[in-house]
Amino acid sequence: MPLTTSDAATAAVWCDRCGDAVTAGSHGACAAARVLEPPRFCAYCRRRMKVQVLPAGWAAVCVEHGETRG
Ligand SMILES: [Zn+2]
Ligand SMILES: [Zn+2]
C-alpha cells in the first residue's frame, strides 16, 4: 500500500457496507458481502451512495466524492 498524505479527508473512515466506523469492531462479514454487493455508504463521508447496477457490475456515486465502480 502506498504512503498517503496526512489529509484526513482522503482516509476511508466508514465501513462502506454497514456505515459504522471502520475502527468499530470487525467488518469481516461486510468485507465478505462486499465481494458480491455494491457499497451502500461512502467510506469517506458516510453519505448514502446512489447505486446503479450495470450489466458488468455496479456504479456507486457519492455527491461529494464521485463514482466508484466494481
Ligand atoms: Zn461494516
Ligand atoms: Zn463521500
Detailed description of the structure:
- With 70 residues, the protein is α+β, with helices and mostly antiparallel strands.
- It has one domain (10-69).
- It contains 1 helix and 3 strands.
- The chain has one helix spanning 28-34; strands at 50-54, 57-62, 66-69.
- The chain has a 3-stranded antiparallel sheet, with no helix packed on it.
- The longest helix is centred in the middle third of the chain and has 7 residues, at 28-34.
- The radius of gyration is 12 Å and the shape is flat.
- It starts with 27 loop residues before the first helix and ends with a strand.
- The protein binds zinc ion (ZN) (2 copies).
- Residues 42, 44-45, 47, 62, 64-65 line the site of one zinc ion (ZN).
Annotation keywords:
70 residues; alpha+beta; 1 helix; 3 strands; binds zinc ion
Strand portion? 15-25%
Task: Characterize the largest beta sheet: strand count, sense, and whether it forms a barrel.
Answer: 3 strands, antiparallel
Please tell me what the overall shape is. flat
Provide the low-confidence segments as ranges: none
Domain count: 1
How many E strands? 3
Strand order across the largest sheet = 1-2-3
Gap from first CA to last CA: 20 Å
What is the tally of helical segments? 1
Helix content: 10-25%
Summed over residues and divided by their number, the pLDDT gives a mean of 90
